[in-house]
Specification:
Blueprint (H helix, E strand, L loop, with lengths): L50 H6 L2 E2 L5 H21 L2 H6 L26 H31 L1 H22 L2 H4 L2 H35 L6 E4 L5 E4 L1 H33 L2 H12 L1 H8 L13 H13 L7 H8 L2 H6 L16 H17 L2 H8 L5 H7 L14 H23 L6 H29 L24 H25 L5 H19 L11 H23 L6 H5 L22
Helix pairs in contact: 2-7, 2-8, 2-9, 2-10, 4-5, 4-7, 4-20, 5-7, 5-9, 7-8, 7-20, 8-9, 8-17, 8-19, 14-19, 14-20, 15-20, 15-21, 17-19, 18-19, 18-21, 19-20
Subcellular location: Membrane
Pfam families: PTR2 (PF00854)
Keywords: Membrane, Transmembrane, Transmembrane helix, Transport
């Protein structure tokens, strides 16, 4: 029988004595307490399933508390603010101030004009945008480490919003007409704002996704039996429910990103850049307000001290003497379970002073390392995804647009996500489960590779058709040639955007879920940071394909990426097919005991703020 858990603020203090005598049975655990608040809790009649029932009974979703949707709304506002702001970056940096329009000094050129501001050219624009993307995906590593070891997730999220707000404000200042007139001053202000915004975004990303899932996990950490109205005994599966949490969370992300990126382009075009930067900032200001108002309802974990450094030492101990010049042998050694078994504290007679944890925590770290191995393949997955806002937009410009802006077509991707995430959640995954085919994380990620490979193959075929039918042949991207495009509608790109969206559902959502479920509970932000860092690494990897990103080599670009994606998908499945059968066992590992120092007392429940 489980104990009811409050949605009040619950933090585990690392060994600090308090007057209250609510001791926590395991270091790092969220303490079970009784309150008068209403939560979806396991009643006295709900029992843990037996091993046989786990194998035979149907699994169902649990109820998702409204608090989770509130946190999802915070993320939606953050994504609206980020994408609404960055959508105007290209024209703000690259294009010159228009000579005429409704508000030319603010950069607004109206319907027939080109919005612009600083006029720094394409190279400066590209360099800053690439840096912004790289910076925003490197910062999760640092933000994850700070959260897990020093501040905790909730405090780090609040600091992240403060940094991002200052960054947003500086970017607004750079877009004020009087500041734009001083081009270098505007650029300097903009760059400082970009650094702060990227830092805030990075710190936010690695913490908000584990924070939202922990709200459900706190009340339902393990599967339990529920009797349906028709008498059927089913298993309420927390893992399945957390999958749904992340599906809906990701849907809200795309609602925010699509609404922001489309609407702010028009604000820039008709009013000015200051408005396209200000409106997202105003919406973003609701994030800290909601965080503060609901602060007493959140379940949150205190930081775990030096868990990361101890995990690194543990990994070094496991891999001691296992490295080889033969990469296959090294990979086999890296994944050897025997090595991890041999370094458990119970197996070591003279334990080092830093080994202040039990065997179960070693198992948790090993499981987290397995998740990081899975993420090693994500840079290959992100390569096709990285074509969305660059080369595919350029390809759209060479097709028959019939008045549709070429930089609007790529919103088919978030639109597909918004439509199909509920379809996958309510129909596809349950239908597959009913016929006995469970879409495990490894299967989902493999399916993502299949979708992205197919998308790039279709893109290569479209590009070949453009070269074949264009009056300019293999130089169809020439600006003069775009006035007489081939008779191929831009909507031929629709399956490409849809397939990349499907791959996003299979891999991105699964990656966030995998980081949460497989990381040690006191290292979830770090492992989530590793997941996001793969995107930064993929951006750096994508630079190798820049020489192919232009006429007459674009068919080769998409073909090469399709081949790499295909090989990556095959290699991924071959490498992790065994994990496909271990998923339930890995999720069922008990939480280990962990202490900062061997002499520290058991932690106690911290009083409510």
């Amino acid at each position: 029988m489980a104990t009811q858990v409050s949605h009040d603020v619950i933090e585990v203090a690392e060994g600090l004595p308090r007057e209250q005598d609510h001791t926590v049975e395991k270091l790092g655990n969220i303490a079970p307490v009784e309150t008068n608040k209403s939560t979806e809790s396991r009643s006295n009649e709900e029992q843990s399933p037996t091993q046989e029932e786990l194998q035979t009974l149907r699994r169902v979703y649990g109820k998702i508390d409204s608090l989770i949707y509130i946190i999802g709304f915070i993320e939606m506002c953050e994504r609206f603010a980020y994408y609404g702001t960055t959508a105007a970056f290209v024209n703000f940096l690259q294009q010159d101030l228009p000579e005429k329009g409704p508000f030319p000094k603010a950069g607004a050129a109206g319907t027939d004009g080109q919005a612009g501001a600083l006029g720094k050219g394409q190279r400066t624009m590209s360099a800053l945008l690439l840096f912004n993307a790289f910076w925003a995906y490197v910062m999760p590593l640092i933000g994850g480490w700070i959260a897990d070891e020093h501040w905790g997730r909730f405090k780090t999220i609040n600091v992240a919003t403060a940094l991002a707000i200052v960054g947003h404000i500086l970017i607004i200042v750079a877009a004020i007409p009087a500041v734009i007139a001083k081009s270098n001053g505007a650029l300097g202000t903009f760059v400082v704002g970009l650094l702060l915004l990227g830092t805030g975004v990075g710190f936010f990303k690695c913490n908000i996704s584990p924070f939202i899932a922990e709200q459900y996990e706190a009340t339902h950490p393990k599967p339990f039996i529920r009797v349906e109205p028709n008498g059927e005994r089913v298993i309420v599966d927390p893992g399945l429910t957390i999958t749904r949490v992340y599906m809906r969370y990701y849907q809200l992300i795309n609602v925010g990103s699509m609404a922001g990126s489309i609407s702010m382009v028009y604000a820039e075009k008709y009013i000015g850049f200051w408005l396209s930067f200000t409106l997202p900032t105003i919406l973003f200001l609701t994030c800290p307000i909601i965080l503060v108002v609901c602060r007493k309802r959140y379940v949150r974990r205190a930081p775990a001290g030096s868990a990361l450094s101890k995990a690194v030492k543990l990994y070094g101990l496991a891999m001691k003497g296992q490295w080889s010049i033969n990469p296959v042998a090294t990979w086999r050694n890296l994944r050897s379970p025997e090595r991890w078994e041999s370094i458990k504290p119970s197996k070591i007679q003279n334990r080092p002073t830093w080994m202040t944890f039990d065997d179960a925590w070693v198992e948790e770290v090993h499981r987290g390392i397995k998740a990081c191995y899975v993420f090693l393949w994500y840079p290959v997955f992100w390569l096709p995804y990285g074509q969305l806002n660059g080369n595919l937009v350029s390809q759209a410009a060479t097709l028959k647009l019939n008045g549709v802006p070429n930089d609007v077509v790529n919103n088919l991707n978030p639109l597909t996500l918004i439509i199909f995430i509920p379809i996958f959640d309510h129909f596809l995954y349950p239908a597959l489960a009913r016929v006995g085919f469970r879409m495990s994380p490894i299967r989902k990620i493999t399916a993502a590779f299949v979708c992205s490979t197919t998308a790039m193959a279709i893109t290569a075929i479209i590009q070949h058709s453009i070269y074949t039918q264009s009056p300019c042949g293999k130089y169809a991207s020439d600006e003069a040639c775009q006035e007489t495009p081939p008779n191929i509608s831009v909507w031929v790109q629709t399956p490409v955007y849809m397939l990349i969206a499907f791959s996003d559902i299979f891999a991105s959502i699964t990656g966030l879920e995998y980081a949460f479920n497989k990381a040690p509970k006191n290292m979830r932000s770090v492992v989530t940071g590793v997941f996001w860092f793969t995107n930064a690494f993929s951006s750096a990897l994508g630079q190798a394909f820049v020489p192919l990103a232009g006429d007459p080599l674009l068919v080769w670009l998409y073909t090469v990426i399709a081949i790499i994606s295909f090989v990556g998908g095959v290699a991924f499945w071959w490498s992790f097919r065994e994990l496909n059968h271990e998923d339930d066992d890995l999720d069922a590992l008990p939480e280990g005991e962990y202490a900062e120092n061997p002499d520290r007392q058991k932690p106690v429940l911290e009083e409510k703020a």
